[in-house]
Amino acid sequence: MPLQPPAPNLATNTSSKVALFWLTTAVGAVLFVTFQLFFYINDYVRAQGATPAITFDPGVLWVFPAFYGCWIVTMLLALIGTQKSHWATFILGSLLVALNTLGGISDGMRDGWYVAFSAVFFITLPGVFAIAATWRHIKETGNDHDDEQL
Predict the structure, then answer these.
(1) How far apart are alpha carbons 41 and 49 in whole angstroms?
(2) What is the DSSP string of 51-104?
(3) What average pLDDT does the segment 113-129 reach?
(4) Which one, 43, 52, 72, 125, has the greatest CB density within 10 A?
(5) For residues 89 and 22, is the Cβ–Cβ distance under 8 A?
(6) At what angle do helices 10-46 and 83-111 cross, to 10 degrees?
(7) DSSP string spanning 101-150?
């Protein structure tokens, strides 16, 4: 009698897919910030230092790693795979997508259309897919709380 492989756990597989969507969005946010810095440095060099330098108080600098670290928290919450963690992923991830998009568009209004386009392309586009995948997973599991065990 041949041995059959165990049936895949669809809840875990779906949680992994949702986490992968959020990881892609997080990488997009990092790419956006990287390109935004390149755009700024290019303008600064082209103007031969005539544009004002952006400086931050050391007490404020901790905000940037904390803010972008939330992307990792979103992905980790998605990996947990429980109903509550997916709701937290949905809320935190949607908030991050909205804030990053609005920040990128406002920077684009100041620095040029290509910055706004980069924000929409690198953050909003994958973010919409991540939000939709999370919402679909929440709707599929519904009120069935069998996946609440870790």
Answers:
(1) 10
(2) SPPP---TTTTTHHHHHHHHHHHHHHHHHH--HHHHHHHHHHHHHHHHHHHHHH
(3) 95
(4) 125
(5) yes
(6) 20
(7) HHHHHHHHHHH-HHHHHHHIIIIIHHHHHHHHHHHHHHHHHTT--GGG--
d(CA 4, CA 36): 52
Q: Distance of alpha carbon 43 from its chain centroid, rounded?
A: 27
| pLDDT, tens digit, 9 for 90 and up, residues 48-67 | 877 666 777 887 788 888 88
Query: In this structure, which amino acid lies at residue 62?
Result: W
CA distance 129 to 85: 18
- Cα–Cα dist 130/99, whole Å: 15
How many whole angstroms separate alpha carbon 108 and alpha carbon 27?
20
One-letter amino acid of 81: G
> Angle, nearest 10°, between helix axes 125-141 and 10-46?
160
